[in-house]
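Quick one, tokens below. Sequence please?
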């Protein structure tokens, strides 16, 4: 089932999510399935549970946009263990549609997490995958890509969004 992606302004997007405790719950399996479906429907490469209103430390990533089963990643309770280098690239977010800005990220990121079977995994991503890891894990900590921008740029975006909210074009 495709779920509604919450947009910037919803408090849950700026709250720290709680660790997943029960890896065998049918709700968790359903949530993971729904998150992939929702992400593909929105043509995104990553989606974090708080974006669909679930304050849990879970995110799905697929840089192939559903083309390659092997690229599907489920990260439960992920923790970054190492970062290396820097990259700057344009970034957007399904919760802040219509806005893209250059964001500085680590070029190589190693993390540990649990997969959908509850197995511990360690993953290393470079370039776009490293960017996705940091972007999605930020979501679990209530942080959005606009938090990485200058105050000036962030305020411009916030003002534009406020206008859209008032006009009923942001929900
Ligand atoms: Zn995002």
């Amino acid at each position: 089932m495709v779920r509604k992606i919450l947009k910037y302004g919803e408090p849950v997007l700026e709250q720290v999510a709680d660790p997943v405790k029960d890896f065998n719950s049918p709700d968790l399996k359903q949530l993971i399935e729904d998150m992939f479906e929702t992400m593909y429907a929105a043509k995104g490469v990553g989606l974090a549970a708080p974006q669909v209103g679930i304050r849990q430390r879970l995110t799905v990533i697929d840089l192939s946009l559903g083309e390659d089963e092997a690229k599907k990643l489920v990260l439960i309770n992920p923790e970054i263990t190492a970062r290396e280098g820097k990259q700057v690239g344009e970034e957007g977010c399904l919760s802040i549609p219509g806005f893209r800005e250059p964001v500085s990220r680590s070029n190589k990121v190693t993390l540990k997490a649990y997969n959908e079977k509850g197995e511990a995994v360690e993953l290393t991503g470079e370039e776009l995958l490293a960017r996705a890891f940091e972007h999605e894990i930020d979501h679990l900590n209530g942080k959005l890509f606009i938090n990485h921008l200058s105050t000036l740029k962030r305020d411009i975006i916030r003002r534009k969004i406020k206008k859209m909210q008032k006009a009923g074009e942001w929900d």
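The chain has a mean pLDDT of 97. Residues 26-41 form the longest helix (16 residues).
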